[in-house]
Amino acid sequence: MPLGLIALALGGFGIGLTEFVIAGLLSPVAADLGVSVPTAGYLISGYALAVVIGALALTPLVNRWQPKRALQLLMVLFTVGNAASALAPGYAALLGGRVLAALAHGAFFGIGAVLASSLVAPEKKAGAISIMFGGLTVANVLGVPLGTFIGQQWGWRATFVVITVVGLVALAGITALVPDAPATRERPNLRAELSVFRNTQVWYSLVMTVLVFGGMFGAFMYIEPLLTRVTGFSEAMVPWLLVLFGVGLFFGNLLGGRWADRALTRTLLALTVALALSLAAFALLADYRIAALLLLPAMGFFGFGATPGLQMRVLDNAGAAPTLASSANIAAFNVGNFLGVWLSGLAISAGFGWVSPLWVGMGFAVTGLLVLIAATRGERAVRPSVPEPVSV
């Protein structure tokens, strides 16, 4: 395995930690800052929107730079944002710190995904991307539960202090392990870059990413109040339950990348169906602890298992603008995150209960499945004679 992939995974770990750890601390943060839980949820959706802005605005600016230098700068921005969050005197300041950290997110993964795929053989590209995104899954397996525990014991600010330290470690890892690749010497042609969005399949892929990722994380971001107020687990159990979810993410990402390398469309179809079914089952069985213990990792496995394939599908259709397309797909992940959290918050505020985010997520996944079917038919209409490769 190229050492550069380890460095990218380190960066992904830090970014995944700051994005998702707040899901285990919504109630304590809301109580400390004097806001409602749905209002605290805007700390998640606001982060997601800032990722979109950063992905689309920062990527063209840093695209000419040496990739290593760009990643270093982005990680500095991320670290400063988390330090500001730790010191935030109130809700608005905390939201501002998270927005600052989020601006680095999209460009980091956009540049990192292209770089990761360039470090391996063509038939291993999705697997390489899954290793980079593996940092996100490790953050959920280890970082988010630990960050939740730290926040419960010493306050949520302590969690952001730890994340700041992780950012510094990730910066050191990038400096030490990412190879020096040449910068793009030609001035980027914005019109040529934007031409990637004339491809209908790129738009299909972006919409699928919004729906599949939004379905999973719109439900997950309100999982802490669901587990404590509906299923009946104690707050002390929440970090351990998040470990289960993170284990599902880890193995879903790992296997999903391998399956996508073998049969991309078939893998996305199967995982999207399974995600919709797992969310519906969780909503129906949320009162039962054993069901929650089984369905938490299943939700993570099926939802994040689609991530490498979704990223690979965009790159396959990106043509001469892979970095912009990759960053746009990272933005799409976070548009889905924003929409899922926002609509789930609306459902909770409207009185539909803490189970409602699971139903919202199922609706997203089903819609994503329909988009994928339409995209597949569109591909066959254009390339009817090119079958999808299948490994034996």
Q: Could you explain how this protein is built, in words?
A:
Helices cover 80% and strands 0% of the residues. Helix 11 runs antiparallel to helix 16. The C terminus is likely disordered.
Secondary structure layout plus pairing:
Elements lengths: L2 H18 L5 H8 L3 H4 L1 H21 L4 H20 L4 H12 L2 H14 L6 H30 L1 H22 L12 H5 L5 H21 L2 H9 L6 H25 L1 H21 L4 H17 L1 H10 L5 H28 L6 H27 L10
Helix pairs in contact: 1-7, 1-8, 1-9, 4-6, 4-7, 4-17, 5-6, 5-7, 5-9, 7-8, 7-17, 8-9, 8-13, 8-16, 11-14, 11-15, 11-16, 11-17, 11-18, 13-14, 13-15, 13-16, 14-15, 14-16, 14-18, 16-17, 17-18
Question: Poorly predicted ranges (pLDDT <50, ≥5 residues)?
Answer: 384-392
Structural class: mainly alpha
Give the percentage of residues in beta strands: under 5%
State the separation between the terminal residues, measured CA to CA.
Answer: 24 Å
Count the helices. How many? Answer: 18
Number of strands: 0
Biggest sheet descriptor? none
Q: What is the radius of gyration?
A: 20 Å
Average predicted confidence as pLDDT: 83
**Order of helical and strand elements:** HHHHHHHHHHHHHHHHHH
Based on the structure, what is the oligomeric state of the protein chains? single chain
Q: Helical percent range?
A: over 70%
Coarse morphology: globular
Summarize the structure.
With 392 residues, the chain is mainly alpha-helical. It has helices spanning 3-20, 26-33, 37-40, 42-62, 67-86, 91-102, 105-118, 125-154, 156-177, 190-194, 200-220, 223-231, 238-262, 264-284, 289-305, 307-316, 322-349, 356-382. Helix content is 80%, strand content 0%.
